């Protein structure tokens, strides 16, 4: 369901407590067209990053016209909800089909990689055990007695395999956070190295031990122990390449959101472009405020209104000379455009005044509601346990007293599409359960929070496309710029290398910290 339907459902829920509310007119925006490069000499590579839970994207209907409203909006108007009709073109169908094919390809690639890694890991752990058991099965009577030495080697192999199993589980068996467009180079190199290493051990074992049926069982066990030791060293190499190499900061990236210009700075180590993009997205959901297209729509409507000029008509006919009057009207239109900044200033000042006014009303309403809850708790302690109210019932009891003020404040600040009545009731019951103050309850609504604070259905960004002129598997370099695009906006990432710092030392002799006080005879004491 589109964001407009979520907004209207929220208003219809509010009207259950506050009476009538205003009829909301919403218009869907056109789908964004795929950007086409105008410079034919620059070839951009576009790949897609998709988060693991494949959920449908939120509809691109967040752009809304700004509506004038008075202070009695919740009492004098009515909200009407209903179904929305959307048309779809052949281009939209082709784009949807392409997205489905890409998602299927990503899933197949992910499961194929996991299958190959699991089979190779199983082969690695079974190989040392097979090296020890095969001679006992095939030519046990011909083996030389090993005794205590082999028993000690058996214990060593068992504990080393256990350590290797725990380390492999901690390093490799993690739930994937995202689907990347290309393979991780170091991880693929490690898999190839392990395969070649195990294959060479099996080749040597088949030629020198199985074919000749070697009777030196102690040497065979030591051969298996050497394999386990080598696997442990490969695991140490994997820790260095996959975890430790990227810890030292080497680059500073600036991330700018294309719609509102909000930016953040992050420090990154030696990473590929696609892994750097994943780090940027993880920090984006945590640090950037939630994307609100309604604010951009309001600013665009104001700009269009201020740029509109006066139309000049010649009512006397084309034969009459009215050039002087026309020039005067054109000059008046120019003066009007020059004074548009004053209109914008007073409009923004009026908007800020309304926000402060409704914020004060909301704070007072919430404080009174929480005071009522405290009084109810003191009274309910004297009643029987069966008559006690749970937090959900308490939240439903006090919500009508603050619903109108909260609704008007969210609508004024254009946050109504992010907060449904059910989410507000859940947050209110949570605050009541944990004995939180009214200020703690209002923190979510007075200040727009990061994207992770809201439901996934209201993120406006779940599937991302990585656009880079360089290969996404190449490492970060100074001056590289890549773009992360989603449905409604994009993140522009500019990479700068941390400069080399030359630090010198200067020694100060402690004996040099001595001073002389000089007094003049004319100085008054």
TrEMBL record:
Membrane topology listed for this record: Multi-pass membrane protein
Pfam families per UniProt: Strabismus (PF06638)
Stretch list, region Disordered: 1-86
Basic and acidic residues bias (residue ranges): 36-45
Cellular localization per UniProt: Cell membrane
Positions with biased composition (Basic residues): 19-35
Superkingdom as given in the UniProt entry: Eukaryota
Spans through the membrane: 111-133, 153-172, 184-204, 224-244
Biased composition (Polar residues): 74-86
Keywords, ordered alphabetically: Cell membrane, Membrane, Transmembrane, Transmembrane helix
One of the record's GO cellular component terms: plasma membrane
Stored InterPro entries: VANGL
Family, per entry: Belongs to the Vang family.
Protein name, as recorded: VANG1 protein
Organism listed in the record: Formicarius rufipectus
Record gene name: Vangl1
